[in-house]
Specification:
The protein has 353 residues and is of the alpha/beta class. It has 9 helices and 15 strands. Helix 4 runs parallel beside helix 5, helix 6 runs parallel beside helix 7 and helix 7 packs across helix 9. The structure holds nicotinamide-adenine-dinucleotide. The site of nicotinamide-adenine-dinucleotide has 22 residues, from helix 4.
Length: 353
């Protein structure tokens, strides 16, 4: 321990499903870590007992806001603490595997930031380890818990769009440049996890192109995913855009949908627009009908996604349930990221999954 903060008086028994509060240790208090600590701290059935960050200024920030929390500079000390049930790993991706593995080996449930791991082999190993030890893995696919994605999922489940044609997302802005990963590993996990959740099918092949301009990592990239049954997905991720855009189009046979995450109200709009072909007897007789009906914007719940996600994780631990964004969901995203990297290195060669 690096400070003289007192240890909270807690029972040292491991958490049992159905019992009281889940006691968390959080590793990493940089940009995203404070959001995890704040939201866990607000949950009735969770308690943040300890935070670890190797940076002294980060630890000072924790101490100022949460003077009761134990502070560590060495993750091994936090991970071996008998009074902790679950660990949130909120550090750069290349550290996730080692920290998550040590946490599982010490009998802790893990909440791991996106992307889950740097390789699919690492993800598979963590999934096996958690299964052997009967521990939970949740990967922070935050957007699955937003009101917008939940609404879109409901619409797709009730087949409101009809047979899906395409999924097309744009996630661009100026920076934040990462030092350890390219723009695909930084931004695309969001879109890949959303797409994986909404479409519920596995892509067959990926093509990715991109370019490095500034720090040796690709800062602009385009990913195309081919699904069975002619569904196609496309993602545009870019750290060099003058404007911030967060828009996803989902086109179906019956209706089409636009999700603009930057809109305060009416984030999701459903257009009763479509195209139908009434004759297929040769190209010259083709009759294309365009349908332009109403647009409507459903009510979207306004809840902080991370709050809902962490509450769900705590419930999964307490009730011994498997989260939908478990290690397997994390692995599916890592496999797509690996395939995209593989294609990117070969200037857009097709990579089969
Ligand atoms: N879910 C989301 O929307 C979202 C948003 C931002 C970041 N993230 C993810 O969160 C993770 C962290 O990103 P960030 O932007 O907060 O990074 P960051 O660099 O701002 O913060 C990381 C912190 O971890 C500390 N750290 C690094 N290695 C450590 C170790 N071995 N032991 C103890 N402390 C260590 C660093 O000192 C730093 O304070 C990444 O995986 C990123 O992809 C997720």
């Amino acid at each position: 321990m690096t400070t003289d903060v007192k240890k909270p008086e807690q029972s040292l028994t491991a958490h049992k499903p159905g019992s009281g509060v889940v006691r968390f240790g959080v590793i990493g208090y940089g940009y995203w870590g404070p959001n995890i600590v704040r939201n866990l701290n607000q949950l009735e059935k969770a308690d943040v007992l300890a935070v670890c960050d190797k940076s002294a200024p980060a630890r000072q920030r924790v101490q100022k806001l949460y003077p009761q929390v134990e502070l560590y500079s060495d993750p091994a000390e936090l991970i071996s603490s008998a009074s902790i049930d679950a660990i949130a790993v909120v550090t750069p991706v290349w550290t996730h595997y080692e920290l998550a593995k040590a946490a599982l080996e010490n009998g802790k449930h893990i909440f791991v930031e996106k992307p889950f791991t740097s390789t699919s082999k690492q993800a598979e190993e963590l999934i096996d380890l958690a299964a052997k030890k009967n521990l939970k893995i949740m990967v922070d696919h935050t957007f699955l818990f937003t009101g917008a994605v939940r609404k879109i999922k409901d619409l797709l489940d009730e087949n409101a769009l009809g047979k899906l044609y395409y999924y097309d997302s744009t996630r661009v802005n100026l920076g934040l440049f990462q030092h350890d990963v390219n723009v695909i590993w930084d931004l695309a996990p969001h879109d890949l996890s959303i797409m994986d959740y909404l479409i519920q099918e596995s892509p067959e092949a990926i093509v990715a192109t991109g370019q490095t301009h500034l720090n040796g990592h690709e800062d602009v990239a385009f990913i195309t995913l081919y699904f069975p049954d002619k569904i196609i997905a496309h993602m545009n991720v870019n750290w060099l855009s003058p404007v911030k855009v967060r828009t996803t189009l989902i086109g179906g046979e019956k209706k089409m949908l636009v999700w603009n995450d930057l809109e305060a109200d009416e984030k999701v709009k459903i257009y009763d627009k479509g195209v139908s072909v009434t004759s297929r007897e040769g190209v010259y007789n083709l009759l294309v009908n365009y349908r332009t009906g109403d647009m409507w914007a459903p009510q979207i719940e306004q809840v902080e996604a991370l709050h809902r996600e962490l509450a769900y994780f705590v419930n999964c631990i307490r009730n011994d349930e498997t989260p939908m964004n478990d290690g397997k969901a994390g692995l599916r995203v890592v496999k797509m990221l690996e395939a995209a990297s593989n294609s990117l290195c070969r200037r857009g060669a097709i990579v089969y999954l």
